Amino acid sequence: MTQTSGKPMNDAEMDFEMAASMGLSRAEWDLILDRLQRAPNLCELGIFSAMWSEHCSYKSSKRWLKTLPVDGPQVIEGPGENAGAVDIGDGLAAIFKIESHNHPSFIEPYQGAATGVGGILRDVFTMGARPVALLNALRFGAPDHEKTRHLLGGVVSGIGGYGNCIGIPTIGGEVNFDPSYNGNILVNAMAIGLANSDRIFRSAATGPGNPVIYVGAKTGRDGIHGATMASAEFSDETESKRPTVQVGDPFTGKLLMEACLELMASDSVLAIQDMGAAGLTSSSVEMASKGGLGMEMDLDLVPAREEAMSAYELMLSESQERMLMVLKPEATDIARQIFDKWDLDFMPIGKVTETGRLVLLKDGGVACDIPLDPLVDDAPEYDRPQADVPSRPILQSDSITSGAGIAPILRQMLASADLGSRRWVYEQYDSQVMADTIAGPGGDAGLIRIHGTNRGLAASTDCTPRYVEADPHTGGAQAVAEAWRNLSAIGARGLAITNNLNFGNPEKPDIMAQVAQSVLGMGDAARALDTPVVSGNVSLYNETDGNAILPCPVVGMVGTIDDIDKAVGNGLPHAGLSLVVIGQGQTCDDGWLGVSLYARMLADGPDAAPPPVDLDAEHRHGLFVQSLIADGHVVAAHDISDGGLAVALAEMCIAGRTGASITSPASGNLHGWAFGEDQGRYILAVKDGDAVMAAAAAQGLPASLIGTSIDSGELQFGGSDVISVEEMEHLVETTIPALMSGTGHTEG
Amino acid sequence: MSLSGLRVAVIVFPGSNCDRDMMVAIEQLAGRRPSLVWHKETTLDPVDLAIIPGGFSYGDYLRCGALAARAPIMESVLDHAARGGAVMGICNGFQILLETGLLPGVLVENAGLKYVCRNTSVEVVEGTASPFTEGLSPGQRMIIPVAHNEGNYFASDDDLQRLEDNGQVAFRYTESDIIGPANPNGAARNIAGILSANGRVLGMMPHPERAMSPALGSVDGATMLNATLQALAA
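^ Those are the sequences you sent over. The predicted structure of the assembly is below.
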């Protein structure tokens, strides 16, 4: 190959009409003309439009993402690499990230979800980490919407199809329903890997002249321009875009993972980047740009699955299971042998240059010759206008509650799709492969043993969109707080987070306000809980025919526990345990029922503020619970979230098949107490309730002894206000299976 | 012979994903790491036990286990079995053994038409004569997880009766307080694992290597594997 420069020889010049069809604005088109001093050809325009898409450039969110805390003594690698890395002690790093595959999953649920899992796994093993756990966060439309069954079934099957085959356990996740997702589901997948902290691989290309190697699966015409699709609103016609959905091959993914990890164990790899969104374009541009260098590639050498693929198609294809690497020149033979062993393509397709340009050769000519700086550094960044977020009133509990008992309401809530057991979903995921799973899905947080040790890695994904909609700042903070609480409830200490910001069209000021304010809230919480943001993903334009989704900034938190034998679950194992609520005294406050499940179910959700989030209290309560668990004082623990205290108690009874006798407060609003969703609270089942109450008092923490676990097989709230554990189990276990078999009752 | 004197090989196909788990489990019990044997090898050094682990060999893209059954290494495994050598196939390994003809019958898609991963209660069947069961008590119940999409054992009624009469049914799914049907996949006669006629080859869907300690939720996999290793070392 020879150095080339100047105008490419082939392809006609593009015009603004073509640029607009790829999602570029007039100003962006003018910027391209200015930077190139000429019109781009099709391949070049495709590269610009992909790199400047919302998906790759974060142009609407970057300004706000910069406000997030990204540093801390535990942080090894913050946002910007393929995934974030955190020091977890013993010379190990936890490497993790969450990523969305919303649009493809709506169009083709199985493949969309499967490739979402495959993509996030590649992000993690690209860094040199062996993936050890998967989680997800899923949102579907109303349970009775005509598409929900099909979409939920396909997505779950796709997540399992990839994760089960590649052999990484799915240890947690969340599934929720809301009509706002009828036409735009959310599929966010998170992966966590482990690496030696001194053996982390990065993507910056080094050493002009060093070979650029393509490895993995061949390139086909699938997923062309997927990043651009992910950056546009949906319409009724979107389902005709099926050919742009990538197809996953978990078997090849497994081979690629093993081959890459085997190669990384040798001293051969200088830089490596997976081909995710925008495929060969983003991988080559990012590697060269991060290294402050250039890159030249001969596209005729790219292993292709189909005949006569153009430069444009090769550069924009999102075929899965592919990687780009820069190797030490002398290591090429060793590397080739490893990929031969795994029957994968291994092809030197170019070299690192000093030009600061991306030069692509095709059919003996120059197909593309553009400077790299504008693609990355000059990518547009917008400060989009925000609407004022009206402050909603605090909900007075007495305005919506009735004089009914707790059990009748609980019965109704447990039968809803919101609270139905997700067993139907998670039993389709292999949660135990790798034989280190201590707590799989269904608990407060997933927990795996760090292989070969007795330490544990815990993780949870969380977001409560109805809170975010009601108050984006509080909702953003609450997502972090709930993840922290879920980890604390099993005895683990949160270390850092990854986030997946799912919103509607940021060009609408009210949506932009949701983005900005919830990121600010998330940042406040991440600072208060000392869980910096080390990686993330933004998915905007989640709208169909102009209707935006409920905002859903998902948080994935990772933490550690020093002794897995100390970790606790949320099931009451036997009678005779004291039940202590940490974070709450005997009464409740107004506001706890604001946008709660109770309010939505019984009063059709009047506009109100969500329950407040007190980050300082959240932090102190979590540390207190963690220390009680570490000291062996706790037999079972559960955080209080959707549905409040009564639902948390019901879940503890069901999980352990043990009853509980609860003393309801003598005064105050009974339903506010039972179903309020005040934050920062836990229920602990302990042998010595008085000792725990004294310990809480010594630290000045609110706590109350509310009852004991009992043998009668009932959850009793006093008098005839009783529900059997068997009935509760039946209620939660039947909802989702009935929904999926088409016999479900309809629940909005 | 002490357990550490046992020679155990775990066969690794592209797409195997329980090979490491099995290696760790055997090492935990025997104090010696089994050898991992790559599918492209054509010879198998003399071993006391060859294990075909779970996973998705060759992606299970044709019929589960069909390609792996024809891999280069399998000729040596068949020779080993023909000499009376012990072979154990777990999950995909069971599917592969069926495809080689070392065990009779087929595994078809689960009756629920879905992948299923959860604990099951497995009962040791009476009347077997095999190193895989001799250290266990007939009627003994073990909590061992399953994780598969094609674990629904099927054979003709005549063949099933022959298996029963010959003492070739090793393990059956049985009632317990685990949520969901006792039989997770619709397998005929609740069959979870079967033996060859000479008792030296075992195929089973449940994963004993995942039930190796209280922290993992059950020690019954360790019990079962330990009984096997003890019998082979005796």
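Helices of chain B lie at 19-30, 72-82, 92-100, 157-165, 220-233. The first helix of chain B runs from residue 19 to 30.

Shout if you want it in another format.
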